[in-house]
């Protein structure tokens, strides 16, 4: 399974794990893959703590960091939490509060609400141009960080120049071939072709269609990773056959013991079928593929006041999500996840997943070899 990107980044197998959980990143990296820590929703101080921990728990192996470096952004991202709360229309707040009250979900205690709002404020700061550059600076201070990935589009020229000056590989996610073309022109070295099947912010083009289009655009100017719905080793073989040099996975790690989800959330995830996700704007105001629930779907139905712009929708929904988790209400619980969620049906470990993916890849390659042999014999 070894491809050129393994030599570029110093991993053994081209299985890339995106996760907001440092334990997942460390476990995948130790198992020979390449873990990438989602860092856009934290402060520079928090990222420093996370990366120091990773340096100690990855055995000296390289890993990556994923950030959002926006070229344009909503200035409300820097508004103090109290002022931002005041911008939320009473109609929207009443709609959500009424929905939760009718479902018997209690409000958050005052201290928990204060903590949640402080975390949100820190996360929004990391999504401004200056805030994201501060996160990049923290990443560059850690020698085991081998790649920095821009989650939404190509990073600005000064960031690309800074990363390459530190011999750090530049990556970026794309949902269209035209996005990949702009990323190559910006100096991106690893393009993650993310199909609509993926969790989080996705476009409308499927992975099977998108990957060969991106490979054709990129040529030999960068490495391509396939993302979106990857949960079996046979899909890794298919991705390599289409010209990708590896796969980028996110959802399959959510069900592992190492993930950031607690027992209640993992149980809710295991119960979600393949068709149980949808692209919705309820979580952030932007389209996110997430598991469907009564809470996520209420915003789609008649009587909804409609979505708020980012970041107001996220502020409103995040508190509702915290209330749902605290109440342990699986019928109301939603979380960013891709269509590969149907393959996450029970507790496992990162090591189990890594072993299974590689075993299934070997079986897929053997099936293809057997087909070729039978053809030659005939």
From TrEMBL:
Cross-referenced Pfam families? NMO
User: What keywords does the record list, in alphabetical order?
Assistant: Dioxygenase, Flavoprotein, FMN, Oxidoreductase
Q: Which InterPro entries match?
A: Aldolase_TIM (IPR013785), NMO (IPR004136)
The top of its lineage is:
Bacteria, Bacillati, Actinomycetota, Actinomycetes, Pseudonocardiales
Query: Mind telling me what this protein is named?
Result: NAD(P)H-dependent flavin oxidoreductase YrpB (Nitropropane dioxygenase family)
Which superkingdom heads the taxonomic lineage of this protein's source?
A: Bacteria
Keyword flag Oxidoreductase: yes
Q: What are the protein's GO molecular function terms?
A: dioxygenase activity; nitronate monooxygenase activity
